[in-house]
Specification:
The complex is a heterodimer of chains A (about 300) and B (about 450).
Chain A lengths: L1 H20 L17 E7 L47 E4 L10 H8 L8 E3 L27 H14 L7 H10 L12 E3 H12 L14 E7 L5 E6 L2 H6 L1 H15 L13 H4 L1 E6 L6
Parallel strand pairs in A: 1-4
Antiparallel strand pairs in A: 1-2, 5-6, 5-7
Chain B lengths: L1 H6 L1 H20 L2 E5 L7 E5 L3 E2 L2 H20 L3 E3 L18 H6 L4 E9 L5 E9 L4 E10 L4 H17 L8 E8 L6 E8 L6 E2 L7 E6 L5 E8 L2 E8 L5 E3 L6 E7 L5 E8 L2 E8 L5 E3 L7 E6 L5 E6 L6 E6 L6 E2 L6 E7 L5 E8 L2 E8 L6 E6 L1 E7 L5 E8 L9 E8 L5 E4 L4 E7 L5
Parallel strand pairs in B: 2-4, 2-5, 3-5
Antiparallel strand pairs in B: 5-6, 6-7, 8-9, 8-31, 9-10, 11-12, 12-13, 13-14, 15-16, 16-17, 17-18, 19-20, 20-21, 21-22, 23-24, 24-25, 25-26, 27-28, 28-29, 29-30
Helix pairs in contact in B: 3-5
Classes of the chains: A alpha+beta (about 300), B alpha+beta (about 450).
Chain lengths: ~300, ~450
């Protein structure tokens, strides 16, 4: 009798314990530790204040840089701007620093979608066509010959020009390129100011995602398109018009490029644009100047 | 009234001036944003089944939409959306597309059409291309043809869509001639074959009893020039596709090879070897007058005209190694344009005029590349054990070549196949041929 009571108590304690702690795991799996993902919270501001290009930690594992020893002395701390409180800033943009740039991910679904098409095609892709990384050159080249030393002076010049023309800037890290892109128009990094991306950069970045530029077209780098837009207060496009209407009629290349820019402006992905609503007066009408020169 | 207006002008003028200043001020300060980067992705396009009026017309409509879709997809510039994602049905679209339904599935362009069999048994195909964002028709055309030509109509529509969206002529309604190879290496049977650019409608033009090499299309389309052997001497022939008739181009004292038509189709430019030296000649096809263009002790060969017929690119070893040179069409002003290491061969001037494609041999490897007409901006697009004979699509945006991959390390055996690659270098495709293939030549657009 007492034995049974003890058994019952033991059993109930066990049940309660299991329901509280859960079943014991016999095959112990190692603890999953999530690698911390660095996220810089960037404030939208009048002026871009991007940090100077920092060396990518993955590429240089040895911390032998002259910059590394600096952190111990305190004064430098002031140069790393404190991230602004995210709650105050609804339009804060997270800059992915560790994660790979987006464009690299995009080709995958496309390649998948193309596969079924092969079934009825008599032509099959030898390798899956991959749209280039948005940060490298649009035009690909088989790069093996690029490292050869030039023989003559004239060749040297040509070689230089070639390198300028085609060599995709693969050595640069994402941060470097980002910083370069951001600092292309605006002032240099001021360590006293908070990290910020300008409102214009934000829009520029947004439209870049929507603009499918005409790669491979003849003299594509010279096709400069201006689109005049009238905006709604909710930052959607009310009206968009291609400037230079006369060339639109006469030049089919220009028309194709201009329409690609117009599609970018009208793309649902780019509506509404990330514009500050309180400054509607300023962006009620805008001119968007599409200039693909940097891409080639 | 007069006194009133006399009194007020200062105030009115002041107000007007202020308003003007304000407008001018805002106009001057109008926000201007430079977009210097974009993405390079295929354009998402929805190609709906063409609606038919009878059972068999529906079949044509389905096939035509499929051919348009594969044509555009293969160009690498378009991404046809899976029809399973379509919200609006083809039949419901006959009045006007509901653009919202197409925006939702991220279509930026929309192709719809109808295929109808007329009482006379002819096929009438019409199509419309819509800009989904702007909600406007971009182009709409109709064609009437015999039923057997449905495939060609589909290619024509794909060309029209391509041209309207990219601003450049398409290249889908074109054909390819190439050398079809079979048999063992030492007794290779080489036959002239022709097919559509997508590999369909394949047929052999010659029987394979004589060796044929380097076929080239005439810009007038019905004729091919190529090299064949006559009494054990290589000679340039002209072959008429429609009649099947072939004739020897002139009776030359030496052997003639590497023929190519001039852009107007009136002349043939070629090499002729005589006394151990080869020079470049042209021959007027109507008058049969022959003119020698180069006079040099080195080997000059593989000439190709620029599209304006003013210049000729060729290769020559006059500089010690085989390099590319350009000259005026009369043989004057010879300039070397290639300077890097390696040998260059088979230059072809782009129909667009801006680039020259070539084969490059360096370090035991073959490359297909392009350079500007002054030799700058060299880019190598394809590389392999053997890649050779680039030929341009008529719009100058895609190159076709053949690639041989050896099955043994000493380079014997293996398959030889045709490939296309676009100028960006990112979109390489195989053109499937029944047996081994080499020396492709792309036809001009069939009008």
């Amino acid at each position: 009798m007492r034995n049974a009571l003890a058994k019952s108590i033991l059993f109930h304690v066990l049940v309660v314990a299991i329901s509280y702690f859960g079943l014991p795991v016999i095959t112990r799996t190692p603890m999953m530790t999530d690698a911390p993902i660095m996220v810089d919270i960037v404030k939208v501001d009048e002026l871009t204040n991007a940090p100077p290009p920092s060396p990518k930690p993955e590429k240089k594992p040895e911390p032998k840089e002259p910059e590394k020893p600096k952190p111990p002395p305190k004064p430098v701390k002031a140069s790393t701007p404190p991230p602004p409180p995210p709650a105050k800033d609804p339009e804060a943009v997270a800059l992915p620093s560790e994660t790979k740039p987006k464009p690299k991910e995009q080709p995958k679904p496309e390649a998948k979608e193309e596969k079924p098409k092969q079934q009825f095609s008599h032509v099959k892709p030898r390798r899956k066509p991959q749209p280039p990384d948005a940060f490298t050159s649009v035009l690909k080249t088989v790069e093996k010959l690029k490292t050869q030393p030039p023989v003559k002076e004239k060749e040297k010049e040509k070689e230089k020009e070639k390198a300028k023309d085609i060599k995709p800037p693969k050595q640069e890290s994402f941060e470097q390129q980002m910083a370069m892109a951001l600092s292309s128009k605006t002032a240099q990094h001021n360590p006293m100011r908070p990290l910020a991306i300008s409102e214009i950069d934000l829009v520029r970045q947004q439209i870049r995602e929507c603009w499918n530029l005409p790669a491979g077209a003849k003299d594509a780098q010279d096709l400069n398109i201006e689109i005049h837009v009238v905006m709604n207060p909710d930052a959607t496009v009310r009206e968009a018009r291609i400037q230079n209407q006369s060339r639109l009629q006469s030049d089919p290349f220009f028309r194709a490029a201009a329409e690609s820019a117009l599609r970018a402006v009208l793309n649902p992905k780019c509506n509404p644009l990330k514009l500050p609503p309180e400054k509607y007066q300023q962006w009620q009408t805008m001119t968007l100047n599409f200039d693909p020169r940097e891409m080639f | 009234m007069a006194s009133f207006t006399n009194r007020r002008p200062t105030v009115a003028g002041l107000v007007a001036g202020l308003v003007f200043l304000a407008i001018a001020g805002t106009a001057r300060a109008e926000l201007r944003i430079d977009i210097t980067q974009g993405t390079v992705e295929p354009l998402p396009i929805a190609i709906t089944q063409f609606v038919g009026n009878t059972q068999s017309a529906t079949g044509f409509g389905r096939d035509i939409a499929r051919v348009i879709s594969t044509d555009l997809e293969r160009s690498g510039l378009f991404r046809p959306i899976d029809p399973k994602a379509f919200i609006q049905s083809e039949a419901a679209m006959q009045t006007l597309p509901r653009f919202g339904d197409w925006r939702v599935i991220n279509a930026q362009a929309l192709v719809q059409g109808r295929a109808q069999l007329t009482d006379g048994g002819q096929l009438r195909v019409e199509f419309r291309l819509w800009d989904v964002f702007a909600e406007q028709q971009m182009i709409g055309l109709a064609y009437v043809t015999v039923q057997d030509n449905w495939r060609q109509v589909a290619h024509i529509i794909a060309d029209a869509v391509y041209k309207r969206i990219t601003g450049e002529d398409g290249y889908f309604n074109t054909r390819i001639v190439y050398i079809s190879e079979s048999g063992p290496q030492n007794r290779r049977v080489k036959r002239l074959a022709i097919m559509d650019q997508d590999g369909e409608n394949h047929k052999f033009l010659t029987q394979g009893d004589t060796l044929v090499l380097t076929p080239r299309f005439s810009p007038t389309l019905q004729e091919i020039t190529y090299l064949s052997y006559y009494r054990n001497l290589p000679r340039v022939y002209i072959f008429n596709i429609d009649t099947g008739r072939q004739e020897i181009l002139g009776d030359f004292p030496g052997m003639t090879f590497a023929p190519r038509f001039s852009p107007d189709g009136q002349r043939v430019i070629m090499s002729m070897a005589r006394d151990g030296n080869s020079e470049i000649y042209t021959m007027d096809l109507r008058t049969r007058v022959v003119k020698q263009l180069t006079f040099h002790s080195a080997i000059d060969t593989s000439p190709s005209y620029s599209p304006d017929s003013r210049q000729v690119v060729f290769n020559s070893d006059r500089g010690g190694t085989q390099q590319l040179y350009t000259m005026d069409a009369n043989g004057q002003n010879v300039r070397r344009i290639s300077y890097s290491q390696g040998r260059y061969a088979t230059p072809v001037w782009s129909p667009r005029g801006d680039l020259i494609a070539f084969t490059k041999i360096h370090g035991g490897r073959f490359y297909i590349g392009v350079m500007r007409t002054d030799g700058s901006g060299e880019r190598l697009l394809a590389e392999d054990f053997l890649v050779e004979s680039p030929t341009w699509a008529p719009n100058g945006r895609v190159l076709m070549f053949f690639r041989q991959s050896p099955s043994t390390p000493d380079g014997r055996g293996g398959r030889s196949r045709l490939y296309t690659i676009d100028l960006t270098g990112h979109n390489e495709r195989e053109i499937v041929t029944p047996i081994d293939a080499s020396d492709p030549a792309w036809s001009p657009l069939i009008r």
